[in-house]
Every structure is written in structure tokens, then in C-alpha cells.
Design a protein that fits this description.
single chain, SH3 type barrels, 5-stranded antiparallel β-sheet, 175 residues, mainly beta, 9% helix
Length: 175
């Protein structure tokens, strides 16, 4: 009984004081679908508006197609699953002090025989759509976002690839 109360208190504190998330990349005339389980094939049970805040992430997992989904809670819904690409930590901004939009970047922290993967969306589990060599320069950052697990990814464009997402830890501003 005593252990059950401790566990319940721990869960409450984690939920009540854990990091809050917000909806991103949804048009103002659209909503984010909340589903019974992780994946678009599962029944839609609710939706969140484009500007919803104070979302709590319970846990995340990969769906059958390799995309990351998170089980979330919000005061307007009980709980359900949303695509992780549409939520980001609420108190982190897209425009951090390390990324200057409109400036050019280069690849860093890659060995000379390796490449930087360019992905279809933010996160290592998303499909690889291209690669940049270890000395690639002239990379333009379009925007950045955080994944639910806290890693920062930037959408980039480069002459060798149309556009895609790379981990922010592998790019630096050119001087």
C-alpha cells in the first residue's frame, strides 16, 4: 500500500511538473488528430487545434512505418497518440542563439570518410533522402525544431539535395 502511494505521487509529480509541449506545423484551419494507438491506421478519438499548448508526453514509440508517435495528455482530452513530428517542447523556440536564418552553414563533427544523413523529417528514424559529405558548405537553414526526445533538428537546403532535415549538432555557421 505504501509503495503504491509513493508510485502514484511520483506519477502525479512527473505529469504535473514535467515538460510541456505544443502543437507545431499545423495550419490554422486544421487540427492534429489524436488516435487510439500509434499510427494513422488507428481510429481517431479526438483532435487538438493548431495552437494547443500544455500537452504532456507520457511516452513515445515507433509505429510500424518507422515514424515516432507519442502518447499524450491534455486537459481537453483524456489521452491518446499523436505523430511526434507535430509537437515540440513548449518553452524552446525555433530560433535558438546558435542558428541564424539566412546565413550559410557547413558540416562539422563528421569524419573524412563519412557523410551526414539528410532525412525526410526530423529524427533518426525517418527515411534517409540524401547525404552531405564531411566538407559540405553553402548549407542554408530554413528552420529548426526539437523532437519529443529533446534533440534539435534543422530543415536545410543545399545544391546537392533539394531540402531535408539534419541533426543540428552536425552543422555550424560559416565564418
Amino acid at each position: 500500500m505504501k509503495n503504491s502511494l509513493k508510485l502514484l505521487l511520483l506519477l502525479f509529480v512527473t505529469f504535473a511538473y514535467g515538460e510541456s509541449y505544443r502543437v507545431v506545423d499545423i495550419r490554422s484551419d486544421d487540427t492534429l488528430s489524436v488516435r487510439v494507438d500509434a499510427g494513422i491506421s488507428y481510429r481517431k478519438i479526438d483532435d487538438l487545434s493548431y495552437n494547443t499548448r500544455d500537452i504532456k508526453v507520457i511516452r513515445c514509440k515507433l509505429a510500424y512505418n518507422g515514424r515516432e508517435w507519442c502518447k499524450v495528455r491534455h486537459p481537453s482530452i483524456y489521452s491518446g497518440w499523436v505523430s511526434a513530428r507535430y509537437i515540440t517542447p513548449q518553452y524552446r523556440s525555433y530560433n535558438s542563439d546558435r542558428v541564424s536564418y539566412g546565413r550559410r552553414y557547413r558540416v562539422v563533427n563528421i569524419r573524412s570518410y563519412d557523410t551526414l544523413n539528410v532525412r525526410a523529417d526530423a529524427g533518426v528514424y525517418n527515411r534517409k533522402i540524401g547525404e552531405l559529405y564531411y566538407r559540405a558548405t553553402d548549407i542554408k537553414v530554413i528552420r529548426c525544431k526539437y523532437t519529443p526526445r529533446g534533440s534539435k533538428w534543422c530543415k536545410i537546403s543545399h545544391p546537392s539535395t533539394y531540402s531535408g532535415w539534419v541533426s543540428a549538432r552536425y552543422i555550424r555557421e560559416m565564418r
